[in-house]
Amino acid sequence: MRYTIPFFGVICFMFLSCAEKTDKDERPNIIFVLADDHRYDAMEFMGHPFLKTPNMNRMAGQGLVFKNAYVTTSLCSPSRASILSGLYAHNHGVVDNYHSVDENLKFFPSYLKDNGYETAFIGKWHMGGEDDSPREGFDYWLSFKGQGTYWADGHGTSREVPQNNSDGFNINGKRVPQKGYITDELTDYAMNWLEKRTADKPFMMYLSHKAIHADFVAADRHLGSYKNMVVPDSTQFKVGENTPMWVINQRNSRHGADFAYNLPDFDINEYYRRYCETILAVDENLGRILEWVDDDDKKEARKTIVVYMGDNGFHFGEHGLIDKRTAYETSVRVPLLMYDSKTSKGRVINEMVANIDIAPTFLDMAGLPVPESMDGRSMKPLMEDKNIPDWRNELLYEYYWERNYPFTPTTNALLTERYKFIRYQGIWDLDEFYDLELDPKEMKNLINSAEHEDMIKYYRQRLFELLKETGGESMPLLEDRGNYYPLRHPEKAKSANFPENYFLKPKKD
Ligand SMILES: [Ca+2]
Predict the structure, then answer these.
(1) What is the pLDDT of residues 110-141, one digit of tens each?
(2) For residue 66, what pLDDT band results from cuts at 50, 70 and 90?
(3) What are the pLDDT digits (tens) for 356-388?
(4) Is the CA virtual torsion 291, 297, 298, 304 positive or negative?
(5) Where does the Sulfatase N-terminal domain lie (predicted)?
(6) Positive or negative, the Cα torsion across 357, 434, 403, 90?
(7) Euclidean distance between CA atoms 250 and 210, whole angstroms
(8) What is 210-278 written as a DSSP string?
Protein backbone atom coordinates (compact mmCIF):
# COMPACT_ATOMS: atom_id res chain seq x y z
CA MET A 1 0.00 0.00 0.00
CA ARG A 2 1.28 3.42 -0.95
CA TYR A 3 1.45 6.31 1.50
CA THR A 4 -0.61 9.36 0.75
CA ILE A 5 1.39 12.03 2.54
CA PRO A 6 1.32 15.47 0.89
CA PHE A 7 4.16 15.77 -1.59
CA PHE A 8 6.14 18.63 -0.08
CA GLY A 9 5.93 17.14 3.38
CA VAL A 10 7.51 14.02 2.04
CA ILE A 11 10.44 15.65 0.31
CA CYS A 12 12.18 16.67 3.50
CA PHE A 13 12.01 13.17 4.90
CA MET A 14 12.50 11.49 1.57
CA PHE A 15 15.84 13.00 0.74
CA LEU A 16 16.86 13.71 4.30
CA SER A 17 17.22 17.44 3.90
CA CYS A 18 17.13 17.40 7.68
CA ALA A 19 20.08 14.99 7.91
CA GLU A 20 21.87 17.00 10.57
CA LYS A 21 18.87 16.80 12.89
CA THR A 22 18.21 13.11 12.50
CA ASP A 23 19.74 10.11 14.14
CA LYS A 24 22.62 8.56 12.21
CA ASP A 25 20.67 5.40 11.49
CA GLU A 26 17.95 7.38 9.77
CA ARG A 27 20.26 8.18 6.90
CA PRO A 28 18.83 6.93 3.61
CA ASN A 29 19.71 3.67 1.93
CA ILE A 30 20.85 4.10 -1.65
CA ILE A 31 20.37 1.66 -4.50
CA PHE A 32 22.25 2.89 -7.56
CA VAL A 33 21.42 1.03 -10.75
CA LEU A 34 23.77 1.80 -13.62
CA ALA A 35 23.00 0.66 -17.15
CA ASP A 36 25.63 0.54 -19.86
CA ASP A 37 25.17 2.61 -23.04
CA HIS A 38 21.51 3.42 -22.30
CA ARG A 39 20.75 6.51 -24.34
CA TYR A 40 18.39 9.12 -22.91
CA ASP A 41 15.49 8.61 -25.28
CA ALA A 42 15.30 4.81 -25.19
CA MET A 43 12.51 4.76 -22.60
CA GLU A 44 8.76 4.59 -23.16
CA PHE A 45 7.92 7.74 -21.18
CA MET A 46 10.30 9.72 -23.38
CA GLY A 47 7.89 9.13 -26.26
CA HIS A 48 9.62 6.12 -27.76
CA PRO A 49 7.43 4.72 -30.56
CA PHE A 50 7.48 1.05 -29.55
CA LEU A 51 9.72 0.33 -26.55
CA LYS A 52 7.86 -0.63 -23.35
CA THR A 53 9.56 0.28 -20.06
CA PRO A 54 6.81 0.19 -17.40
CA ASN A 55 9.23 0.38 -14.47
CA MET A 56 11.26 3.29 -15.81
CA ASN A 57 7.89 4.94 -16.51
CA ARG A 58 6.93 4.36 -12.89
CA MET A 59 10.15 5.91 -11.64
CA ALA A 60 9.50 8.91 -13.86
CA GLY A 61 5.80 9.16 -13.01
CA GLN A 62 6.26 8.90 -9.26
CA GLY A 63 9.81 10.14 -8.74
CA LEU A 64 12.30 12.53 -10.25
CA VAL A 65 13.34 12.80 -13.88
CA PHE A 66 16.53 14.74 -14.60
CA LYS A 67 15.74 15.83 -18.12
CA ASN A 68 19.17 17.34 -18.77
CA ALA A 69 21.51 14.66 -17.45
CA TYR A 70 24.87 14.29 -19.19
CA VAL A 71 28.12 12.45 -18.98
CA THR A 72 31.32 14.48 -19.07
CA THR A 73 33.04 11.69 -21.03
CA SER A 74 30.98 9.32 -23.17
CA LEU A 75 32.93 6.11 -22.72
CA CYS A 76 32.49 3.21 -20.27
CA SER A 77 35.56 3.29 -18.02
CA PRO A 78 36.10 7.08 -17.89
CA SER A 79 32.41 7.73 -17.18
CA ARG A 80 32.34 5.05 -14.47
CA ALA A 81 35.41 6.60 -12.85
CA SER A 82 33.68 10.01 -12.95
CA ILE A 83 30.55 8.59 -11.32
CA LEU A 84 32.59 6.98 -8.55
CA SER A 85 35.03 9.85 -7.97
CA GLY A 86 33.04 12.99 -8.74
CA LEU A 87 35.93 14.04 -10.99
CA TYR A 88 36.39 14.95 -14.63
CA ALA A 89 38.40 12.38 -16.61
CA HIS A 90 41.30 14.83 -16.78
CA ASN A 91 41.47 14.65 -13.00
CA HIS A 92 40.83 10.95 -12.32
CA GLY A 93 43.10 9.95 -15.22
CA VAL A 94 40.98 7.05 -16.52
CA VAL A 95 40.88 8.17 -20.14
CA ASP A 96 40.49 4.85 -21.96
CA ASN A 97 38.93 1.42 -21.49
CA TYR A 98 42.23 -0.37 -20.95
CA HIS A 99 44.11 1.02 -17.97
CA SER A 100 43.54 0.57 -14.24
CA VAL A 101 42.61 3.27 -11.81
CA ASP A 102 45.21 5.15 -9.78
CA GLU A 103 45.33 3.41 -6.40
CA ASN A 104 45.27 6.72 -4.55
CA LEU A 105 41.94 7.71 -6.05
CA LYS A 106 39.17 7.54 -3.44
CA PHE A 107 35.68 6.62 -4.62
CA PHE A 108 32.43 7.60 -2.91
CA PRO A 109 31.67 4.07 -1.60
CA SER A 110 34.84 4.28 0.53
CA TYR A 111 33.63 7.49 2.18
CA LEU A 112 30.26 5.88 2.87
CA LYS A 113 31.83 2.68 4.21
CA ASP A 114 34.20 4.66 6.45
CA ASN A 115 31.19 6.47 7.86
CA GLY A 116 28.99 3.59 8.86
CA TYR A 117 27.36 2.49 5.61
CA GLU A 118 27.25 -1.12 4.50
CA THR A 119 28.27 -1.17 0.85
CA ALA A 120 27.90 -3.63 -2.01
CA PHE A 121 29.10 -3.67 -5.60
CA ILE A 122 27.42 -6.05 -8.01
CA GLY A 123 28.20 -6.16 -11.74
CA LYS A 124 30.39 -4.53 -14.32
CA TRP A 125 33.39 -2.65 -12.96
CA HIS A 126 35.40 -2.43 -16.17
CA MET A 127 38.31 -0.39 -15.04
CA GLY A 128 41.44 -2.48 -15.31
CA GLY A 129 40.57 -5.11 -17.94
CA GLU A 130 41.38 -8.60 -16.71
CA ASP A 131 41.23 -7.91 -13.00
CA ASP A 132 37.89 -8.41 -11.24
CA SER A 133 39.20 -8.75 -7.70
CA PRO A 134 37.42 -6.89 -4.87
CA ARG A 135 38.08 -3.14 -4.75
CA GLU A 136 38.36 -0.74 -1.84
CA GLY A 137 35.18 0.54 -0.27
CA PHE A 138 32.88 -2.46 -0.59
CA ASP A 139 31.74 -4.91 2.09
CA TYR A 140 30.32 -7.17 -0.60
CA TRP A 141 31.82 -7.59 -4.05
CA LEU A 142 30.64 -9.38 -7.17
CA SER A 143 32.17 -8.56 -10.52
CA PHE A 144 33.57 -10.07 -13.70
CA LYS A 145 36.52 -9.43 -15.97
CA GLY A 146 36.24 -6.75 -18.65
CA GLN A 147 32.88 -6.76 -20.42
CA GLY A 148 31.70 -10.12 -19.05
CA THR A 149 29.16 -11.98 -21.20
CA TYR A 150 25.37 -12.01 -21.53
CA TRP A 151 25.25 -15.81 -21.27
CA ALA A 152 28.01 -18.05 -19.95
CA ASP A 153 27.87 -20.16 -23.14
CA GLY A 154 27.89 -17.02 -25.30
CA HIS A 155 24.68 -17.84 -27.17
CA GLY A 156 22.94 -15.08 -29.03
CA THR A 157 26.16 -13.19 -29.77
CA SER A 158 26.67 -12.30 -33.40
CA ARG A 159 30.33 -11.32 -33.28
CA GLU A 160 33.40 -11.29 -31.09
CA VAL A 161 33.47 -8.39 -28.69
CA PRO A 162 36.79 -7.06 -27.37
CA GLN A 163 37.25 -7.63 -23.63
CA ASN A 164 34.30 -10.04 -23.45
CA ASN A 165 35.02 -13.08 -21.35
CA SER A 166 33.26 -16.03 -19.79
CA ASP A 167 35.34 -16.54 -16.69
CA GLY A 168 32.35 -16.24 -14.37
CA PHE A 169 32.11 -14.03 -11.32
CA ASN A 170 34.51 -12.97 -8.63
CA ILE A 171 32.44 -12.99 -5.43
CA ASN A 172 34.42 -11.58 -2.54
CA GLY A 173 37.60 -13.04 -4.02
CA LYS A 174 36.19 -16.46 -4.98
CA ARG A 175 35.50 -17.62 -8.57
CA VAL A 176 31.88 -18.64 -9.09
CA PRO A 177 30.47 -19.71 -12.45
CA GLN A 178 27.85 -17.62 -14.24
CA LYS A 179 24.67 -19.65 -14.65
CA GLY A 180 21.98 -17.54 -16.22
CA TYR A 181 21.23 -14.43 -18.25
CA ILE A 182 23.44 -11.66 -16.92
CA THR A 183 20.80 -9.00 -16.15
CA ASP A 184 18.59 -11.51 -14.31
CA GLU A 185 21.48 -13.11 -12.48
CA LEU A 186 23.06 -9.86 -11.29
CA THR A 187 19.66 -8.79 -10.00
CA ASP A 188 19.21 -12.19 -8.29
CA TYR A 189 22.45 -11.54 -6.42
CA ALA A 190 21.32 -8.00 -5.62
CA MET A 191 17.95 -9.14 -4.27
CA ASN A 192 19.61 -11.88 -2.29
CA TRP A 193 22.00 -9.38 -0.73
CA LEU A 194 19.10 -7.06 0.15
CA GLU A 195 17.03 -9.87 1.70
CA LYS A 196 19.86 -11.48 3.65
CA ARG A 197 21.65 -8.49 5.06
CA THR A 198 21.50 -8.20 8.84
CA ALA A 199 23.67 -5.20 9.62
CA ASP A 200 21.94 -2.50 11.58
CA LYS A 201 23.21 0.35 9.46
CA PRO A 202 22.24 2.14 6.30
CA PHE A 203 23.40 0.66 3.01
CA MET A 204 24.52 1.63 -0.47
CA MET A 205 24.16 -0.96 -3.19
CA TYR A 206 25.76 -0.29 -6.60
CA LEU A 207 24.18 -2.57 -9.20
CA SER A 208 26.11 -2.15 -12.42
CA HIS A 209 24.60 -3.95 -15.40
CA LYS A 210 26.45 -5.34 -18.38
CA ALA A 211 23.38 -4.51 -20.43
CA ILE A 212 22.85 -2.67 -22.71
CA HIS A 213 26.38 -2.87 -24.05
CA ALA A 214 27.06 -4.12 -27.58
CA ASP A 215 26.90 -6.88 -28.80
CA PHE A 216 23.31 -6.69 -27.54
CA VAL A 217 21.82 -10.03 -26.49
CA ALA A 218 18.28 -9.99 -25.12
CA ALA A 219 16.99 -12.52 -22.61
CA ASP A 220 15.58 -15.53 -24.49
CA ARG A 221 12.05 -14.58 -23.33
CA HIS A 222 12.36 -11.21 -25.09
CA LEU A 223 13.80 -12.37 -28.41
CA GLY A 224 11.60 -11.22 -31.27
CA SER A 225 9.57 -8.76 -29.15
CA TYR A 226 10.23 -5.97 -31.65
CA LYS A 227 10.36 -8.00 -34.83
CA ASN A 228 10.14 -5.80 -37.92
CA MET A 229 10.48 -2.54 -35.97
CA VAL A 230 12.97 -0.05 -37.42
CA VAL A 231 15.13 2.78 -36.10
CA PRO A 232 12.50 5.46 -35.37
CA ASP A 233 14.00 8.38 -37.28
CA SER A 234 15.64 7.53 -40.58
CA THR A 235 16.52 11.19 -41.29
CA GLN A 236 19.31 10.78 -38.77
CA PHE A 237 21.48 8.95 -41.30
CA LYS A 238 22.02 12.15 -43.24
CA VAL A 239 25.20 14.17 -43.11
CA GLY A 240 24.55 17.69 -41.89
CA GLU A 241 25.83 21.06 -43.10
CA ASN A 242 29.51 21.84 -42.51
CA THR A 243 30.12 18.43 -40.98
CA PRO A 244 33.77 17.86 -39.98
CA MET A 245 35.73 15.52 -42.21
CA TRP A 246 36.41 13.04 -39.43
CA VAL A 247 32.65 12.49 -38.96
CA ILE A 248 32.14 11.84 -42.67
CA ASN A 249 35.14 9.51 -42.65
CA GLN A 250 34.01 7.63 -39.56
CA ARG A 251 30.86 6.63 -41.42
CA ASN A 252 32.96 4.01 -43.22
CA SER A 253 34.71 2.57 -40.15
CA ARG A 254 34.13 0.17 -37.29
CA HIS A 255 32.04 2.85 -35.58
CA GLY A 256 30.18 4.04 -38.66
CA ALA A 257 26.75 3.11 -40.01
CA ASP A 258 28.27 1.89 -43.32
CA PHE A 259 30.78 -0.58 -41.89
CA ALA A 260 29.78 -1.06 -38.26
CA TYR A 261 32.04 -3.47 -36.39
CA ASN A 262 33.67 -4.02 -39.80
CA LEU A 263 30.74 -6.24 -40.80
CA PRO A 264 29.95 -5.78 -44.52
CA ASP A 265 26.33 -6.85 -44.06
CA PHE A 266 25.56 -4.92 -40.85
CA ASP A 267 21.85 -4.13 -40.47
CA ILE A 268 21.29 -1.15 -38.19
CA ASN A 269 17.56 -1.83 -37.79
CA GLU A 270 18.24 -5.36 -36.64
CA TYR A 271 20.88 -4.01 -34.26
CA TYR A 272 18.49 -1.42 -32.87
CA ARG A 273 15.76 -4.05 -32.32
CA ARG A 274 18.25 -6.13 -30.36
CA TYR A 275 19.18 -3.07 -28.29
CA CYS A 276 15.52 -2.42 -27.41
CA GLU A 277 14.86 -6.09 -26.64
CA THR A 278 17.90 -6.11 -24.32
CA ILE A 279 16.51 -3.09 -22.43
CA LEU A 280 13.38 -5.12 -21.55
CA ALA A 281 15.24 -7.25 -18.99
CA VAL A 282 16.87 -4.18 -17.47
CA ASP A 283 13.42 -2.67 -16.99
CA GLU A 284 11.88 -5.89 -15.66
CA ASN A 285 14.67 -6.36 -13.15
CA LEU A 286 14.42 -2.72 -12.11
CA GLY A 287 10.80 -3.60 -11.29
CA ARG A 288 11.99 -6.25 -8.82
CA ILE A 289 13.97 -3.58 -6.97
CA LEU A 290 11.06 -1.11 -6.99
CA GLU A 291 8.83 -3.85 -5.61
CA TRP A 292 11.26 -4.41 -2.75
CA VAL A 293 11.37 -0.68 -2.06
CA ASP A 294 7.57 -0.52 -2.13
CA ASP A 295 7.21 -3.17 0.57
CA ASP A 296 5.60 -1.27 3.44
CA ASP A 297 6.44 -4.01 5.90
CA LYS A 298 10.15 -3.31 5.58
CA LYS A 299 11.47 -0.36 7.53
CA GLU A 300 14.66 -0.64 5.47
CA ALA A 301 12.74 -0.31 2.23
CA ARG A 302 10.87 2.79 3.26
CA LYS A 303 14.02 4.84 3.66
CA THR A 304 15.58 3.64 0.42
CA ILE A 305 16.15 5.76 -2.66
CA VAL A 306 16.61 4.10 -6.02
CA VAL A 307 18.68 5.95 -8.61
CA TYR A 308 18.77 4.74 -12.22
CA MET A 309 21.36 6.07 -14.65
CA GLY A 310 23.19 5.29 -17.88
CA ASP A 311 26.99 5.59 -18.20
CA ASN A 312 26.82 7.10 -21.72
CA GLY A 313 24.55 7.23 -24.76
CA PHE A 314 24.80 5.49 -28.13
CA HIS A 315 24.40 6.50 -31.77
CA PHE A 316 22.15 4.47 -34.02
CA GLY A 317 23.02 6.16 -37.29
CA GLU A 318 22.99 9.79 -36.12
CA HIS A 319 25.58 11.67 -38.17
CA GLY A 320 26.27 8.37 -39.95
CA LEU A 321 27.76 6.92 -36.76
CA ILE A 322 27.27 4.15 -34.27
CA ASP A 323 28.82 3.83 -30.79
CA LYS A 324 29.38 6.87 -28.50
CA ARG A 325 32.51 8.95 -27.62
CA THR A 326 31.36 12.06 -29.54
CA ALA A 327 29.92 15.22 -27.98
CA TYR A 328 26.65 14.85 -29.91
CA GLU A 329 23.37 14.67 -28.00
CA THR A 330 22.69 10.96 -28.47
CA SER A 331 26.15 10.22 -27.05
CA VAL A 332 26.31 12.63 -24.09
CA ARG A 333 22.77 12.54 -22.72
CA VAL A 334 21.77 9.78 -20.32
CA PRO A 335 18.73 8.69 -18.31
CA LEU A 336 18.75 9.77 -14.68
CA LEU A 337 15.75 8.81 -12.56
CA MET A 338 15.16 8.72 -8.80
CA TYR A 339 12.46 6.95 -6.85
CA ASP A 340 11.34 6.12 -3.34
CA SER A 341 8.19 4.48 -2.06
CA LYS A 342 6.73 7.54 -0.37
CA THR A 343 6.42 9.96 -3.24
CA SER A 344 3.48 9.60 -5.57
CA LYS A 345 3.86 12.54 -7.90
CA GLY A 346 6.62 12.79 -10.47
CA ARG A 347 8.67 15.91 -11.02
CA VAL A 348 10.93 16.95 -13.87
CA ILE A 349 14.21 18.70 -13.04
CA ASN A 350 15.60 20.82 -15.86
CA GLU A 351 18.94 21.87 -14.41
CA MET A 352 22.05 20.47 -16.12
CA VAL A 353 23.45 17.61 -14.07
CA ALA A 354 26.17 15.11 -14.84
CA ASN A 355 27.91 11.88 -13.89
CA ILE A 356 30.37 13.92 -11.77
CA ASP A 357 27.44 14.95 -9.52
CA ILE A 358 26.58 11.41 -8.38
CA ALA A 359 29.38 11.03 -5.81
CA PRO A 360 28.81 14.47 -4.17
CA THR A 361 25.06 13.81 -4.07
CA PHE A 362 25.38 10.47 -2.33
CA LEU A 363 27.84 11.87 0.22
CA ASP A 364 25.51 14.79 0.87
CA MET A 365 22.53 12.46 1.26
CA ALA A 366 24.53 10.55 3.85
CA GLY A 367 25.19 13.79 5.72
CA LEU A 368 28.88 13.80 4.81
CA PRO A 369 30.86 16.79 3.57
CA VAL A 370 31.66 16.84 -0.14
CA PRO A 371 35.46 16.97 -0.60
CA GLU A 372 36.54 20.23 -2.23
CA SER A 373 38.59 18.29 -4.74
CA MET A 374 35.45 16.91 -6.38
CA ASP A 375 34.44 18.58 -9.65
CA GLY A 376 30.77 17.66 -9.32
CA ARG A 377 28.15 19.16 -7.07
CA SER A 378 25.46 17.69 -4.84
CA MET A 379 22.05 17.46 -6.54
CA LYS A 380 20.33 17.11 -3.16
CA PRO A 381 18.97 20.69 -3.14
CA LEU A 382 17.49 20.09 -6.61
CA MET A 383 15.95 16.87 -5.36
CA GLU A 384 14.38 18.88 -2.55
CA ASP A 385 12.92 21.32 -5.10
CA LYS A 386 14.97 24.20 -3.79
CA ASN A 387 15.71 27.16 -5.99
CA ILE A 388 19.47 27.24 -6.59
CA PRO A 389 20.27 30.47 -8.42
CA ASP A 390 23.94 29.61 -8.89
CA TRP A 391 23.40 26.11 -10.26
CA ARG A 392 25.63 25.51 -13.28
CA ASN A 393 24.43 26.55 -16.71
CA GLU A 394 27.42 25.15 -18.59
CA LEU A 395 29.24 21.86 -18.61
CA LEU A 396 32.61 20.66 -19.83
CA TYR A 397 32.82 17.60 -22.05
CA GLU A 398 35.96 15.68 -22.99
CA TYR A 399 36.97 12.57 -24.86
CA TYR A 400 40.52 11.34 -25.37
CA TRP A 401 41.58 9.70 -28.62
CA GLU A 402 42.18 5.96 -28.39
CA ARG A 403 44.47 4.33 -30.94
CA ASN A 404 42.12 1.33 -30.97
CA TYR A 405 39.38 3.41 -32.61
CA PRO A 406 41.47 5.98 -34.46
CA PHE A 407 38.60 7.75 -36.25
CA THR A 408 37.21 9.71 -33.23
CA PRO A 409 39.54 12.55 -32.26
CA THR A 410 40.26 14.06 -28.86
CA THR A 411 37.25 16.25 -28.17
CA ASN A 412 36.55 19.09 -25.78
CA ALA A 413 33.16 20.71 -25.68
CA LEU A 414 31.25 23.35 -23.81
CA LEU A 415 27.59 22.55 -23.38
CA THR A 416 24.91 24.97 -22.33
CA GLU A 417 21.15 24.44 -22.44
CA ARG A 418 20.84 26.06 -25.83
CA TYR A 419 24.26 25.99 -27.49
CA LYS A 420 27.12 23.57 -27.88
CA PHE A 421 30.69 24.33 -28.93
CA ILE A 422 32.89 21.37 -29.86
CA ARG A 423 36.66 21.63 -30.34
CA TYR A 424 38.91 18.93 -31.73
CA GLN A 425 42.53 18.46 -30.79
CA GLY A 426 45.34 17.46 -33.11
CA ILE A 427 43.46 17.23 -36.41
CA TRP A 428 43.09 19.45 -39.48
CA ASP A 429 39.34 19.85 -39.41
CA LEU A 430 36.34 21.99 -38.53
CA ASP A 431 35.18 22.63 -34.98
CA GLU A 432 31.43 22.70 -34.37
CA PHE A 433 28.79 25.03 -32.95
CA TYR A 434 25.09 24.19 -32.65
CA ASP A 435 21.93 26.01 -31.67
CA LEU A 436 20.08 23.12 -30.04
CA GLU A 437 16.83 25.03 -29.78
CA LEU A 438 16.58 25.55 -33.53
CA ASP A 439 18.55 22.47 -34.48
CA PRO A 440 18.10 19.72 -31.86
CA LYS A 441 19.52 17.05 -34.16
CA GLU A 442 22.76 19.01 -34.72
CA MET A 443 22.49 19.00 -38.49
CA LYS A 444 23.64 22.57 -39.11
CA ASN A 445 27.14 23.34 -37.91
CA LEU A 446 27.29 27.12 -37.37
CA ILE A 447 31.04 27.30 -36.86
CA ASN A 448 31.45 29.55 -39.91
CA SER A 449 28.33 31.60 -39.26
CA ALA A 450 29.10 35.34 -39.18
CA GLU A 451 26.02 35.88 -37.03
CA HIS A 452 27.43 33.60 -34.32
CA GLU A 453 31.05 34.70 -34.56
CA ASP A 454 31.16 36.59 -31.25
CA MET A 455 29.35 33.84 -29.43
CA ILE A 456 31.71 31.19 -30.76
CA LYS A 457 34.67 33.31 -29.72
CA TYR A 458 33.23 33.52 -26.22
CA TYR A 459 32.52 29.77 -26.04
CA ARG A 460 36.05 28.95 -27.17
CA GLN A 461 37.52 31.25 -24.52
CA ARG A 462 35.15 29.97 -21.84
CA LEU A 463 36.03 26.36 -22.66
CA PHE A 464 39.68 27.08 -21.91
CA GLU A 465 38.81 29.02 -18.78
CA LEU A 466 36.89 26.04 -17.44
CA LEU A 467 39.68 23.66 -18.39
CA LYS A 468 42.11 25.89 -16.53
CA GLU A 469 39.85 26.23 -13.48
CA THR A 470 39.45 22.47 -13.24
CA GLY A 471 43.05 21.50 -13.98
CA GLY A 472 42.32 20.20 -17.46
CA GLU A 473 45.14 21.83 -19.39
CA SER A 474 47.27 18.74 -19.74
CA MET A 475 46.32 15.45 -21.30
CA PRO A 476 47.34 12.02 -20.02
CA LEU A 477 49.26 10.00 -22.59
CA LEU A 478 48.76 6.31 -21.85
CA GLU A 479 50.47 3.37 -23.51
CA ASP A 480 48.64 1.81 -26.50
CA ARG A 481 46.79 -1.35 -25.47
CA GLY A 482 44.19 -3.65 -27.01
CA ASN A 483 43.10 -4.22 -30.61
CA TYR A 484 43.54 -1.73 -33.45
CA TYR A 485 40.61 -1.13 -35.82
CA PRO A 486 41.61 1.06 -38.75
CA LEU A 487 39.63 -0.82 -41.47
CA ARG A 488 37.51 0.83 -44.16
CA HIS A 489 35.22 -0.87 -46.66
CA PRO A 490 36.49 -0.36 -50.25
CA GLU A 491 32.98 0.05 -51.69
CA LYS A 492 31.26 2.12 -49.00
CA ALA A 493 31.33 5.89 -48.36
CA LYS A 494 34.33 7.72 -49.84
CA SER A 495 36.71 10.00 -47.93
CA ALA A 496 35.52 13.49 -47.11
CA ASN A 497 36.51 16.54 -49.12
CA PHE A 498 38.20 19.42 -47.34
CA PRO A 499 35.77 22.16 -46.30
CA GLU A 500 35.33 24.83 -48.95
CA ASN A 501 36.58 27.60 -46.72
CA TYR A 502 39.93 25.82 -46.36
CA PHE A 503 40.78 26.58 -50.00
CA LEU A 504 42.55 29.75 -51.07
CA LYS A 505 40.07 31.90 -52.97
CA PRO A 506 41.39 33.14 -56.33
CA LYS A 507 41.91 36.90 -56.47
CA LYS A 508 39.17 38.69 -58.39
CA ASP A 509 41.39 40.95 -60.50
CA1 LIG B 1 29.17 2.44 -21.53
Answers:
(1) 999 999 999 999 999 988 768 999 999 999 99
(2) very high
(3) 999 999 999 999 999 999 999 999 999 999 999
(4) positive
(5) 28-367
(6) negative
(7) 26
(8) -TT-SS----GGGTTTTTT---S-GGGGS--BT--HHHHHHTTSTTBTTSGGG-TT--HHHHHHHHHHH
For every residue of 365-427, DSSP letters joined together read: HTTPPPPTT-SS---HHHHTT---TT--SEEEEEE---TTSTTS-EEEEEEESSEEEEEEESS
pLDDT per position as a tens digit, 453-492: 999 999 999 999 999 999 999 888 889 999 999 999 999 9
What mean pLDDT comes out for the span 12-20?
Answer: 42
Q: What is the pTM of this model?
A: 0.94
Q: For residue 108, list its beta bridge partners.
A: none
Contact criterion met (CB below 8 Å) for 414 and 467: no
In contact, 35 and 282? CB cutoff 8 Å: yes
Enumerate the β-bridge partners of residue 64: 338, 347
Ligand 1 centroid from CA 303, angstroms: 29
CA-wise closest residue to 104 among 94, 112, 95: 94
Q: Is 37 left (phi over 0), alpha (psi -120 to 50) or beta?
A: left
Q: How confident is the model at residue 20 (pLDDT cuts 50, 70, 90)?
A: very low
C-alpha 348: how far from chain center: 19
- Measured in Å, residue 5 CA sits from the centre of ligand 1 at 38
Task: From 465, 348, 455, 343, select the one nearest 412 (Cα to Cα).
Answer: 465
Distance, in Å, from the CA atom of 22 to the CA atom of 15, rounded to the nearest integer, reads 12
d(CA 411, CA 426): 10
Taking the C-alpha atoms of residue 97 and residue 127, their distance in angstroms, rounded to an integer, is: 7
Query: Cα of 476 to ligand 1 centre, how many Å?
Result: 21
CA-CA distance, 307 to 33, in Å (whole number)?
Answer: 6
The alpha carbon of 198 and the centre of ligand 1 are apart by a number of angstroms equal to 33
User: Ligand 1 mean position to 508 CA, how many Å?
Assistant: 53
Q: 278 C-alpha vs ligand 1 centroid, how far in Å?
A: 14
Using the mean position of ligand 1's atoms as its centre, give its distance from the Cα of residue 403 in Å: 18
Strand positions, DSSP E, 74-128: 118-123
**What are the boundaries of each domain within the chain?**
29-256+264-392
CA–CA separation, 258 and 489 (whole Å): 8
